[in-house]
Amino acid sequence: MAKVRVLIVDDEFFVCQLISHLVEWEKYHAKIIGMIDNGEEALDVIMKECPDVVISDIRMPGLNGIELVKAVKNLKNPAKIILISGHRSFEYAREAINLGADYYLLKPIRKNELLEVFQGIVAEIDKERSLADKEKDYEEKLLSSKNELRKQFMSSLTGGQVEKELPAGLSAINEKYHFAFQKGCFLLGEWKLDLTGEGRRADMEILRRQLSKYQHELNSCCMEFELYAEENALWVLANYKKGQRGNVIWHLKSIRDTLEEISRCPVTLVAGLEWEDLGKLAGNMEEFKKCVYLRLDEQEKVILEKEDGGRNAECASLKLGTLIRYIEGRDNAAIVEYFEKLKEAMKEERGGTQLLKIHRIVSTFYQLFEEGRYEEEGRVIEETIENMNSIEEIWKYVTQKAGEVIAENEKRLGGINSVQIEETVRYINAHYTENLKLKDMAERVYISPQYLSGLFKKEMFMTISDYIAKIRMERAKELLKDTGLSIGEIAEKTGYKDIRHFSTMFKRLTGLTPSEFRRIGI
Q1: pLDDT in tens, 147-165
Q2: What is the C-alpha separation between 391 and 458, in angstroms, rounded?
Q3: Contact, 217 vs 227, CB < 8 A?
Q4: For residue 406, how far is the Cα from the chain centroid?
Q5: d(Cα 125, Cα 163) in Å, to the nearest integer?
Q6: Which of 499, 408, 491 is nearest to 454 (CA)?
Q7: Residue 480 burial class via C-beta count within 10 angstroms: exposed 0-12, middle 13-18, buried 19 and up
Q8: How far apart are CA 162 and CA 150, in angstroms?
Q9: More confident call, 464 vs 420
Q10: 113 and 105 in contact (C-beta within 8 Å)?
Q11: Torsion of CA 62, 66, 67, 69, to 10 degrees
């Protein structure tokens, strides 16, 4: 606990010294912060240093002890005051106590009297500090609880879940989540940050700490608001008076500019429609998210949500019901064809519709194939997609995941992964003379390179690189036996630009050099 800080005030310096020697200050966890010989200087020190206890004479030139008491008791955190006087009149003592002095001692000062009074003051201060600490702890816990409830509300709202649990009426919402919303208008805004690389989390932590600095921007235009930070986005729910939407959006744009400057990455502001009913705003989250995704193909810094019907129309042949029938029938070829058609159809659609459709497809795959694992896997997929910066990148990722799910499902059923592996083998057989890359082959069958590599080895009992080398060497043998082409020409026709590399691989797989093989004529 902090020490009790004591200031001694008397125009006679020897009295100050006497008082300083009458008490073992350290014993009571106290210390003297100064000895002053006049009231005016004492008041300056009190206002700057905020002592806990002031021991002061009454009779002093300039500002006397009574006047000092009046001034100190008007301060925010007044000190305890012990007044010392040679006046033995009871009326004089009563006046001092009425003005705010805590104790009144007569001169000459007796050690036992001063000690008794000081012990009582220390006990009072300890009690007050303990109570203040408890109150502060309670207030901090209460604030933390309120903040957590508001955070939960924003998390549910931005995740599209709050509509199901939203109480009816603003008063009920305010009571449950500790808001102070008023009748007026509501607007949801999101600052979407396209952060990339290993520094992304560190960058977001910096931006979270900046949130408090934006509050003054919103206090000037909102009756109530809530700021909320996610891993790659900052959100605001603004409650304001009707007719102030333009002013609110102006401030949101200003914050967008600041965020972009601090993060040094692209920041898109998405401002939703204006709603007088908070429940209707919550029910509009799917439409709002379309606008967030539009940043991927509109390249705008600010996107304002508009009433826009008809954007969800889907080609009849690409409805989810069709995909579900293919999945339930284990028709892998039809599923692959579905994705090819979907890819073409999406070229004519806007980013928001594309992304929502992709989410629905991924959800369908995991609901049908992964059962209990869907919630966890689906959440990872959604977070990954939201951190991507282009439609092409998202499409590639989703089609890979879809292919992996198909393969995993067939494996559990005891089948073989014919679509992915047969297509890969067919492609290698037709293109073995080219510079084949695992990444390109994986993209063709909608799975990740790592997954294709493991799957190929399991199905074919060899790695992809070994299979490519095997096909090339079989063709090289045919050319060595049936043609008069030079070793260099044969190397080139079987996909090798370096004749020495070709010869090394040939001997490793056959035990003979190309020249020895041709001479023996096996």
Answers
A1: 788 888 888 887 766 655 6
A2: 32
A3: no
A4: 33
A5: 51
A6: 408
A7: buried
A8: 12
A9: 464
A10: yes
A11: 130
